[in-house]
Amino acid sequence: MSGDTMSRHEHAQTRRVLLVLRAFVSLWLIGAVPRVAWACPVCFGNSDAPMAAATNTGILFMLGIVVAMLSAFASFFIYLIRRANRLAAETARADAAGLAPSEGSAQC
């Protein structure tokens, strides 16, 4: 029993040390990044510069990619739902008619 509590204590202490280390490294990285890297072109005061226009174009392009991928993902699931419904309807019709379902093989 005492071995279990000792390992739990050591585990909790290790987690605390890792949390403090992670916080220290994160704060150090934030402080190490130059201030210029945090600013966008608009923050420098020239919003009509080519760099600002390129930034806006890049943002719109990335949003377009996200919309296209989400649309493709949704379309795939709509396709699967329709396909499952069509198969269920065909199976129901075959059951109602008393026919054996065909598996794509020749029926002699």
Structure write-up:
This protein is mostly helical and 108 residues long. It folds into 2 domains: 1-38; 43-97. It is built from 3 helices and no strands. It has helices spanning 2-32, 35-38, 50-97. The mean pLDDT is 80.
Distance between the termini: 73 Å
* Secondary structure tally: strands: 0
Helix content percent band: over 70%
- Poorly predicted sequence stretches spanning 5 or more consecutive residues: none
- Total domain units: 2
How many helices does DSSP assign?
Answer: 3
What is the H/E order?
Answer: HHH
Mean pLDDT: 80
Structural class: mainly alpha
Described by strand count, sense and barrel closure, the largest sheet is: none
Assess the beta-strand content as a share of residues. Answer: under 5%
Q: How large is the radius of gyration?
A: 30 Å
Shape field: flat
